[in-house]
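Please go through this protein, sequence plus structure tokens, and consider how the sequence yields the tokens. Keep your notes short.
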Amino acid sequence: MEEDLRELYQQVILDHGRKPRNFGALDGANHEAEGFNPLCGDQIHVFLKVSPSETVDSVRFTGSGCTICTASASLMTASIQGKSKHEIAAMFERFHDLVAGANGSKNSEEVLGKLTVFGGVREFPIRVKCATLPWHTLKAALDDDHKVVSTE
């Protein structure tokens, strides 16, 4: 059963890595940031339209990177649409704990949904930076931090 679940997770990651959702620039973005992982060359640019009530109305991304990074950005953008900055901050913490925490995050599915497919990434520490780069870049965009985000 666990092997079937792992295979399903891998299929979801491969699907989003090959056919990313919300890929492309966003006209009229009022928040954006760039991220770069010098270790493997992942580059990402996150574009947001945030409403006056601080809810993400639209989100897209561009860039090039490994399958883990691209899939993470794709699933992230699908997951944060319509969420408030506060909700996204909670998701960021849960996601980071899921992929980088010693034990992963318990009961993450209720907050993270499909993003839980990245739980296995913590077994490959070098891939944690690939999975979290889109999230750190999203955080910089929401914070209007105009420095290039780096995972180093």
About this structure: The beta strands are 31-37, 42-50, 56-64, 149-150. The two ends are 37 Å apart (CA to CA). The chain is about 45% helix and 20% strand. The mean pLDDT is 90.
